[in-house]
Amino acid sequence: MVPAAAAPSRRSLLSSTKNRTPVEAAERSEEATSLDQDEDGCVQFVRQCLHGRELSADTINIICGSWRESTKRQYRGYQQKWLQFCCEKQSDPFNADINLVLDFLTELYKKNLGYSALNTARSSLSSFLSLSGQSNTKLGDHFLVKRFMKGVFLSRPTLPKYQFTWDVNKVLGFLKTLSPVQDLSLLDLSKKLAMLFALLSGQRKQSLHLLDVRNVSVRDDMLIIRYGDLLKQSKPGHHLDEICIAAYPNDVDLCIVNVYMEYVQRTMKLRGSGSRLFISTQKPHNSVSVDTIGRWIKGIMKSAGIDIKCFAPHSTRSAATSAAANAKLSVDTILRTAGWTSDNTFRKFYNKPVKLCSDFSNALLDSFHKA
Q1: Which residues 6+ apart lie within 8 Å of 328 measured at CB?
Q2: Domain ranges within the chain, ordered by starting residue
Q3: CATH architecture label of 168-370
Q4: pTM score > 0.70 for this model?
């Protein structure tokens, strides 16, 4: 974070621009482009605006921590483009009129950006920009911005990435060939466990990456998973409930409890003081990244005959939950397991048709054996 001692200069920079001349506005824009390099660019813009509101340094620090790292990365590039745009126009980048904002979005549109990218750009500006003369109107709520974004959507619509999903039976069939688990290499065992977790829990890569051996337990022939970290779906008043996956005695080769116990035993002496479940298969056996888990899942999909040019690792979430819905599992159970608070998200983005009926957890595995 920028030290509190830097506040006076920021406050001076963010003083009223009501009577600012174009030259002064340009100087302020140029000064804004030379922000401190030790702090995320997205946070710097917000910090400058908040200093102008005469807030305390502690309050500003808390507010600046309200954006997740992934959001900051999304916003950073568009905010830099905005600063450059305002510098060229000799305009104040922190207090602009609606016409300037629309001109900026139009410039991005001319560079062939689609609706999703422009919507992110609009949101990034909303995080720090005040519309001159309209302090009570949020940028995204302005009627011209709404109409502009609707025009972008109609001319360059954002369509679902997948119109259908793949059959989980293909992957389960391949996972069954990776047996017995005691004879598998650590790499194949890791891939098998990661894919079983992805399918039987309906979770995304990030959630698999955050699995902690201290929060995973086996009780009454059931794998109980808890999360002690913030997830993408975490928000005030809502966090992912415990996920319970029962053992599957009908087929030990596909029983996640059996695979999990073998993996934990195999890696116990390798993980050292670390507690993340998935670790590297090579020394020094540190916890793996989200991308590594994605590569493991992608490798299993490819080996199972899934078209990886069409489907990314994240598609396991859609494939698993769609299979559960086709097996007549209740929507409430699907939402609770996957971590959604509303069925609108599931129905709009994840519930896709599959060629063959599949199932979820025990029901999913029963469907595999009946096929």
Answers
A1: none
A2: 4-155, 168-370
A3: Orthogonal Bundle (1.10)
A4: no
